[in-house]
Amino acid sequence: MSGVADFVHVVEPAHRPRTPTLLLLHGTGADERDLLPLGRVLAPGAALLSPRGRVDEHGMNRWFRRLREGVFDVDDVIDRAEELAAWVPVALEHHGLAAPVVAVGFSNGANIAAALMLLHPRLLDGAVLLGGGYPLQGREPGAADLSGRAAFLGVGLTDPISTPDQARLLADHLSALGADVELSEHPGGHQVPPAVLEGARSWFEGRFGPR
């Protein structure tokens, strides 16, 4: 059984009514505080729930193991996604946080957020996936139903870590399962330029902003 202490995490309560909860998922080598500024930009006043990945790769925090750069341990992806999926509802209840729940992930964090959508389709209402790709490398997600869910994907056309092909593959899988997907490509590499950030903010406001 998952407990709220299973993941080191920080919480910022909502400061505006009828706002969603953002599940912030950091990239490799970062921690639970890394994406707090991004969350505040995407959804001012929303509740922020930001855990720390539990995999240690040579002193760097990650969400799942990899065999080498760009090659994931897919069995570990599945196991770690299950752990996180079990923890999220416990943390929401413990901290009194409300639905809808939207994941915001960068790089490795985007990959575990994508795994949550593919493997636990009722957990999240949406996701902002920045610098991520298809996390199940070579495996199909099964018959998940993502109807009513939405995702914004941001990817750099010269990204050597999360390539455009991987982001497009992820977008195709999410769309095939019924999600409403917006793919934003930019000419840069493994970063989030202002134009993509603004696109994500506008997408979020249109989908999940206060009504």
UniProtKB/TrEMBL annotation:
Q: Which domain of life is it from?
A: Bacteria
State whether keyword Transferase applies.
Answer: no
Please provide an example of a Pfam family that matches this protein in its UniProt record.
Answer: Abhydrolase_2
Ranges where the Phospholipase/carboxylesterase/thioesterase domain occurs: 10-201
Q: Which GO terms describe its molecular function?
A: hydrolase activity
Q: What InterPro entries does UniProt report for this protein, alphabetically?
A: AB_hydrolase_fold, PLipase/COase/thioEstase
Q: Which UniProt keywords apply?
A: Hydrolase
Could you tell me what this protein is called?
A: Alpha/beta hydrolase
What is the source species?
Answer: Nocardiopsis lambiniae
